[in-house]
Amino acid sequence: MAQILLKRVRKRRLEQGHPWVYRNEIEEVQGEPEAGAVVVVKNHQGHDLALGFWHPTSQIAVRIASYQTSERIDRTWLKAKIARAWAYRKRFLAHTEACRAVYGEADGIPGLIVDKYGEVAVIQILSLAMDIRRDWIVPALHEVLGVRAIYERSDAPVRRLEGLEPQVGCVFGECPEEVEIKENGIFFLVDIQEGQKTGHFFDQRENRAALAPVVRFGALEKPRPDLRFREEWTDKVVVPESHNTRVGAEVLDCFSHTGAFALHAVRYGAKHVILVDASERALQQAKRNAERNGYSERCEFVMGNAFDLLREYERNERLFDVVILDPPAFAKNRAAVPSALRGYKEINLRGLKLVRPGGFLVTASCSAHVSPDQWRGIVAEAALDARKILRLVEYRSAAKDHPQLMGMEENDYLKFAIFEVQPR
C-alpha cells in the first residue's frame, strides 16, 4: 500500500476532522498508487493518520475513508458505513420514508450521495473512488435500505473535476419517472429523472416546518390566545375550521422552485401565497403539488426573474406579511464570492422593503463558499440600507439528515434565518 507523507508545516485540518488532503499539503508519495487506490496518510514524522482514496490529478489528492489504518476497505466496509448512516437517520428523524440516507464525507463515504424516496433510491457518485467501486454500492443499498429501485443522477459538474463523465439512468430495478413523498404532512411529486439534483431538497425540511408560527397570522392581525402556537401543529393542519375569523399571512415566496416553502406556508395558515420562479418546469410542478394537496385556491404562480419582480413590487408599493427568499447558490466557487455577496444584498434589500411593519423576512443561502458570518453581515447591511430593524427569530442550518463535520467548513453551507422586521 502506497504511503502519502504530509508536509511538516501545514494546517492540521486532517487531525481536526477534515476528510480531504489537498495536493499542496503533500511532501512525498512513496510508491506508485493507481487512481482510486487506497493509500496510507502519514504526518511528516511517519505516524499513521488515516486511510484514503488516492487521486493523482485532482486538487483533492486524498479522500479519507477511515482513521483506523488497520481497517480493510472493501464491500463489507461500504455496507457497514451505509448501515451506520441509516441508523443515524432512524435515531434522529421522525420519518425516514423520504430523506437523505447517505451524505458523502459527513457519513464517511467520500463522494456518495443517496436520497431515499420510499422504495426508490436516487444516488449521486461524485468521486473517482466511488465511481470505480460502483458495483459495491447497489447491493449494499438494496440490503440496508430495502429499496427496490435505484436511479443514478451523477450529472453534477463537480464530476468533471474528478475526470468523470456524467452518468444518468436506472441502475437497479424498475425506476419510475416520478415518485410521491410526504413531508411535514404535505404531499410532493418528485421528478427524480429531470428535477434539480436528485429531485427534492431535504436539507430545508426542518426549516420549512419553522414557518408554522410565522404565517399563522398577518402582521396586522392580533393573535388570539386560544390560537397560540404549539409545536405539535407543525405536523398537522393548524387552522381549525371553527376559527373562521382568522385571516392569515400574505406571503411572497421568491425562487419557489416546486413550491416546498409555499405549500408549507399554506398548510400552516397563510391566506395567500405568490410563488415566483424563472423556471416554467418548476412552476408547473409547483402547481401540481398545490393541486395534490388542495391548496390551489390560495396559491398564485408567477414566472419571472425574482430580482426584477422585487423591484416592480417595490415601485408598486406592494407589501406582504412574510417574504421568503431561498435562492440557488450564487457562488459556485471562491472567485464568485464578491458578486454573490452583492446578489445576496440586493435580494434581501428588496425583500425587506416589501415586508409590512411587524412582518417577517425568511431568508437563506446555500452557497458553501459564503461563510455564515459573511452572509449575516450582508443581511445586516441590507437592513441598514432599507432602514429596517431586524429581530432574529430563528437561525438554522441544514436538516439532521445532512450532518455537519465540525472540521469541514464545506459542510456548513446552508444558512437560514427568520427575522421580524420593523421600520427605523
Please provide a written account of the structure.
The protein has 424 residues and is α/β, with parallel strands linked by helices. The chain has three domains: 3-66, PUA domain (Archaeosine Trna-guanine Transglycosylase, Chain: A, domain 4); 75-181, Transcription Regulator spoIIAA (2-Layer Sandwich); 210-423, Rossmann fold, CATH 3.40.50. The chain is 26% helix and 29% strand. It has eleven helices and 20 strands. It has helices spanning 75-92, 128-131, 134-145, 158-161, 205-209, 212-215, 260-267, 280-293, 306-315, 337-353, 372-385; strands spanning 3-6, 20-22, 26-30, 38-42, 48-54, 60-66, 98-103, 112-117, 120-125, 149-154, 167-172, 178-183, 186-191, 250-254, 272-277, 299-303, 320-325, 355-365, 388-396, 415-423. The chain has a seven-stranded mixed sheet, sandwiched between helices.
Which tags fit this structure?
424 residues; alpha/beta; Archaeosine Trna-guanine Transglycosylase, Chain: A, domain 4; Transcription Regulator spoIIAA; Rossmann fold; 3 domains; seven-stranded mixed sheet; six-stranded mixed sheet; 11 helices; 20 strands; 29% strand; RNA binding; PUA_sf
CATH superfamily of the largest domain: Vaccinia Virus protein VP39
CA-based shape? globular
In round numbers, the mean pLDDT is 93
Helix and strand composition category: alpha/beta
Radius of gyration: 23 Å
* Euclidean distance between termini CA atoms: 65 Å
Count, helices: 11
CATH class of the largest domain: Alpha Beta
Adjacency order of strands in the biggest sheet: 16-15-14-17-18-20-19
Count up the domains: 3
Helix content percent band? 25-40%
Strand content: 25-35%
CATH fold naming of the largest domain: Rossmann fold
User: Unreliable segments (pLDDT under 50, ≥5 consecutive)?
Assistant: none
**Biggest beta sheet summary:** 7 strands, mixed
Number of strands: 20
Please state the second-level CATH architecture of the largest domain: 3-Layer(aba) Sandwich
